[in-house]
Design brief:
The protein has 167 residues and is α+β, with helices and mostly antiparallel strands. 35% of the residues lie in helices and 32% in strands. The chain is globular, with a radius of gyration of 16 Å.
């Protein structure tokens, strides 16, 4: 009998597993761009623990193991800033990234602050990420050159207010 993946809020006790997963998950990105100094690979445990108290951080668990994570916050302009979507390589291509992103979008929308849109970024060569985000309704808003090897593609998705909520 298989176990189900459960998505829930992360706690400080999840920090080490999140950091290990982040390190594992961003290796292909580092290789793709030839840059192993990217922030997800150099983030400290202390910095991640601080983010756990400052942002919404969700984890996907398979039993006791963290197999996915995403984090985000609503900024002063009402934009849901989403980052660090990571799914364990053995769990990819099963819809978990989409489930995590959907759960975070709902969490940000329910947070009580006015929300107008969601924004996230990925590298221009990260075609799998770009396909996933397009499938989930994100559209390219801007491209920001970072270096000779990397341009960040900024994507945005409007917040859709249910019709019942507008009546």
């Amino acid at each position: 009998m298989g176990m189900s993946v459960i998505i829930s809020a992360a706690g400080v006790e999840d920090a080490e597993q999140i950091l290990k997963l982040q390190y594992l998950g961003y290796q292909p990105e580092a290789e793709l761009y030839g840059d192993w100094a990217i922030e997800p690979l150099t983030q400290t445990l202390e910095s991640l623990r601080a983010e756990l108290s400052e942002q919404h951080v969700l984890v996907a668990r398979l039993g006791d193991e963290v197999v996915g994570t995403v984090r985000g916050r609503v900024d002063a302009d009402g934009v849901g800033r989403i980052g660090r979507l990571v799914v364990h390589p053995r769990m990819q291509r099963h819809g978990l990234g989409g489930r995590l992103l959907d759960a975070l979008e709902r969490r940000l929308a329910e947070g009580g602050r006015p929300l107008t849109s969601y924004r996230l970024s990925t590298g221009h060569r990260s075609l799998g990420n770009l396909r996933l985000y397009a499938r989930l309704g994100y559209r390219q808003a801007a491209v920001e050159p970072i270096s000779d090897r990397l341009s960040l593609v900024h994507l945005e998705k409007p917040v859709v207010v249910p019709l019942a909520a507008t009546a």
